[in-house]
Amino acid sequence: MKTVNLSILRTVGVFAVGGLLVGFMPLATPGPKNVMNPGDSIQSQAGKLTGYVEILFTEPGDPCIQSQERYLHPGTKVFIQNSDRQSIATGVLGVGTPQPLQAGFSKMTCKFPLVVENIPELQNYIIKLEGGEEFPYSRKQFEQKNWQVELTLFR
């Protein structure tokens, strides 16, 4: 038996039977776009969370230096936990950069970029910083924010 490409069958199939040329147009033959690979899953892809953790100090000085001495630093772990507080994904903070709190103010904040990949699909999450701070989020909130978060700590 001859192997036939399914994409051809989506349009018109033609074959010979007893010397007659027979053509047909199938109504529901799956094309290449409809065929699942064995490794494919019906569930959606794992999420990638990006954003930053911002820390604001009430004391004068460089907030990034103050933070690295006491609270956050590049490499601080960021855990994504399920509702049972089990870690399901882990990322780390990048190098913080000082930024003005608002234009015209002398107060500065330090923003540490964060990336956490391969977050499985759940209804509720907890973002936990290595220092102990926790931020609850739902999947709907992540999706509304396009998987970008801005977490703020006051010190």
Structure at a glance:
The protein has helices spanning 6-11, 63-70, 139-144, and strands at residues 13-17, 20-24, 47-56, 77-81, 87-93, 97-100, 108-119, 124-129, 134-138, 148-154. By secondary structure, it is mostly beta strands.
Relevant terms:
single chain, 155 residues, mainly beta, eight-stranded mixed sheet, two-stranded antiparallel sheet, 13% helix, elongated
Explain the overall architecture:
It is a single chain. With 155 residues, this protein is mostly beta strands. 13% of the residues lie in helices and 43% in strands. It has three helices and ten strands. The strands form two sheets. Strands 3, 4, 5, 6, 7, 8, 9 and 10 form an eight-stranded mixed β-sheet that branches. A two-stranded antiparallel ribbon has the order 1-2. Residues 1-44 have low confidence and may be disordered.
Shape by Cα distribution: elongated
Name the helicity range.
10-25%
- Number of E strands: 10
Straight-line distance between termini: 75 Å
What structural class do you assign from the helix and strand content? mainly beta
Poorly predicted regions: 1-44
Which percent band covers the strand fraction? 35-45%
Q: Radius of gyration in whole Å, from Cα?
A: 27 Å
Oligomer description: single chain
| Count of DSSP H/I helices | 3
Which helices and strands occur, and which strands form pairs?
Elements: H1 6-11, E1 13-17, E2 20-24, E3 47-56, H2 63-70, E4 77-81, E5 87-93, E6 97-100, E7 108-119, E8 124-129, E9 134-138, H3 139-144, E10 148-154
Parallel strand pairs: 3-10
Antiparallel strand pairs: 1-2, 3-7, 4-5, 4-8, 5-7, 6-7, 8-9
